Amino acid sequence: MRLQTVPAAAGAAWVKQGWRAFTQQPLAFSGLFAAFLFVIFVLTLVPLVGSLLLLALLPLGSLGFMIATRDQQAGRIPLPRAFIDPLRQGPTRARAILVLGVVYAVASVLIITLAEWADGGALDELMQVLADGKATPADVGERLADPRLELGLLLRFGLAGLLSIPFWHAPALVHWGTQGVAQSLFSSTVAIWRNKGAFLVFALAWCAVVLV
Questions:
Q1: How many angstroms separate the CA atoms of 38 and 50, rounded?
Q2: What's the CA dihedral at 92, 96, 99, 104 to 10 degrees?
Q3: Nearest-angstrom CA–CA distance, 18 and 24
Q4: Residues 196-208, buried b or exposed e (16+ Cβ, 10 A)?
Q5: Minimal CA–CA distance to 60: which of 89, 76, 82?
Q6: By the 8 A CB rule, do 2 and 179 touch?
Q7: Are 101 and 58 in contact (CB under 8 A)?
Q8: Handedness of CA 23, 26, 30, 33 (dihedral sign)
Q9: At what angle do helices 137-144 and 122-131 cross, to 10 degrees?
Q10: Cα separations (Å) of 149 from 13, 34, 89, 112, 203?
Q11: In angstroms, rounded to a whole number, what is the distance separating the alpha carbons of residues 36 and 54?
């Protein structure tokens, strides 16, 4: 596999290509997303271990949607087996995918722990107040005014964004490029850095879609 460098405008093209792929198989992709959400729901019901498993399965889940999209591009109907196919490509690649999941889960837990330490539980208090149907606007405003909340949110989103860079392409590089764990994380980071303009446009385009 060779690293490609694309212009910044490619970021907007990626969003268009994603919409085009979805509109050609909307029911299939909606079914995949529903199945993905169902697994998330089931795992959230399992105390402690469920949350860790959910984090560890996210790289495999992202790869599953990539495989489903490639199936759609090849004229095949995307099926839920796309989430399992990466584990059927031999023990070496399956082990690498699982290791990626474990690394991602551990790193995510460290980020969450650091953010909770930094905000002193301010975000948890805000979520509890929002979940309370009897909370007043003054109660919510008091939690939002906590300066620790901003620091905690910056750490959560900032570090999570940095963590996504090496994991963005890593599962695909393991599955299709037969790269090892360390090599795939490094290659993903280099790919995004070399194409940072396109990824910035990609992010801005999605922000515009969400706002609209």
A1: 13
A2: -170
A3: 10
A4: eebbebbeebeee
A5: 82
A6: no
A7: yes
A8: negative
A9: 160
A10: 36, 32, 44, 13, 24
A11: 11
Continuous segment of H or E residues that includes residue 111: helix 91-119
Single-letter code of the amino acid located at 144: L
Q: Which two tokens stand for residue 175?
A: 């599955």
Contact 29, 70 (CB under 8 A): no
Rounded distance, CA 52 to CA 58, Å? 10
Which residue matches tokens 């059927």?
88
Q: Are 55 and 107 spatial neighbours (Cβ–Cβ below 8 Å)?
A: no
pLDDT of residue 140: 75
At position 136, the amino acid (one-letter code) is T
* pLDDT tens digits, one per residue of 145-183: 778 888 888 999 999 999 999 999 999 999 999 999 999
- The yes-or-no verdict on residue 131 having pLDDT over 80 is no
Are 72 and 78 in contact, with CB atoms under 8 Å apart? yes
Quote the tokens at residue 10. 């490619």
SS3 content of the chain, % helix, strand, coil (to 5): 80, 0, 20
DSSP 145-199: T-HHHHHHHHHHHHHHHHHHHHHHHHHHHHHTT---HHHHHHHHHHHHHHTHHHH
